[in-house]
Amino acid sequence: MYDSDNTALYAFRKYGDVILRCAYACTGCFSEAEDITQDVFLSMHAESPIFSDDEHMKAWLLKVTINKCKNLKKSFRFSRTQSIDEKIESEMSCEFTGEENEIREILFRLPEKYSTVLYLYYYEGYNIREIAKMMSKNENTVSSLLQRGRKKLKIELEREGYYARG
User: How many angstroms separate the Cα of 131 from the Cα of each of 22, 78, 104?
Assistant: First the structure.
């Protein structure tokens, strides 16, 4: 479908912003998100995977991004260090503003298994079947995580002073 030399460049132009947003949402640090984004597209170039269509490509990119974010969170460097400059930079560089940023922060305070599913469902617009495939989980598991995650998010939002809607 694509010339293997240009696939990563095509993907970067089409999905670079989506991958950067996803990495930032998972890490909370703009400079780490940039590094992960670069690493995702370098991996794509090195592996030269075959995609059936653009949605398949996007799903692959998001799955790799989420996995790289998980690996970063497990690393000593991430868990033990973050400079004040990085914290300020990440807050200033975020494209989420005001209430959206507060809700995103609350979302990512939830356990990762819930925040990842909620992010993919609400921010990226994937359905349960697509999320299950991306995360290599059963659809029923993803559905349960989504349901439990919604309940936990609602509790946290109410705790932070947001009113339940609907």
Answer: 14, 26, 19
Is the CATH code 3.60.21.10 the one for domain 96-166?
Answer: no
Contact criterion met (CB below 8 Å) for 134 and 126: yes
Which pLDDT score is estimated for 11?
Answer: 94
Q: DSSP letters of 39-88?
A: HHHHHHHHH----SSHHHHHHHHHHHHHHHHHHHHHSHHHHH---HHHHH
Give 42-74 pLDDT, tens digit per residue. Answer: 999 999 899 999 989 998 999 899 889 888 877
Tokens of 154: 């609602």
Q: What is the pTM of this model?
A: 0.63
- What pLDDT shows up at residue 157? 86
**DSSP type of residue 124:** S
Residues 6+ apart with CB under 8 A from 146: 117, 118, 121, 128, 131
Domain extents in the chain: 1-95, 96-166
Q: Whole-angstrom Cα distance, residue 71 to residue 125?
A: 24
